[in-house]
Input
Amino acid sequence: MSGEGRFVPSGWPGLKAVIRRELGAYFTTPLAWVFLAAFAFAAPAFAFNVGRFFDTNRADLAPLFAYLPWLLMILMPALAMRAWAEERELGTIETLLSLPMPLWAAALGKFLAAWAVAGLALVLTFPMWIAVNWLGAPDNAAIAVAYVGALLLAGAHLAIGQALSAVTPNQVVAFVLGVLVAFLLTMAGLPFVTGALSSSVPAWLVEAVAHMSALDRYAAFENGVARLPDLVYFLSLIAGGVTAAGLIAGSTREGGR
Output
């Protein structure tokens, strides 16, 4: 408590305060509702129409998980773009960073709030999981692992998107940068990319680029296999993105002194 009897957020209490603030900002504006509606419509649409869900004659969610990376590549930067850019645009970033709480609490709180919204979007696809169980006998353990992979991929795009949001006060610019980086991470390991690179760069660099591919890492989860290197890859992207967002935003506080 402060000298005036007010609660001073710090550490974990500060983290919870930021999460509540961010969730309130999402759900008291149309952003979260539009995002959830778009995801709830687009995910089944890709599975049913593009992935030809009913034509596969298989009781699984392979068509859904096959197209989720391309959907997340667009929707996660859209969810992340406001995180810090809006604070800069409205001039509230200095107020937020002047609160007596560590910088990590602000950065992590913003990320966890957005990740919770992304997780809720994935939950909205659960009726499809129920449907395939009604139609047949799917491998539910493999489906659960694929959902974990989708959540990790969403978290990686969100963390990177929020770091890019900290660079600019323009949400559109943050969105475009986020989509661009998500696109590069997704495409990095595709054969036509590595094939094009192999003719002009050393083999070790081609291999390094291929190992950066989020799509390849996600593919293991998509197939129901949770491998430690893939888990470390996604958690490293998340940790790096959240840390970068905090450091970039923190430079605003340092620059204002």
Confidence is low (pLDDT under 50) at residues 1-9. Residues 45 and 51 are 9 Å apart (CA to CA). The two ends are 26 Å apart (CA to CA). The chain has 13 helices and no strands.
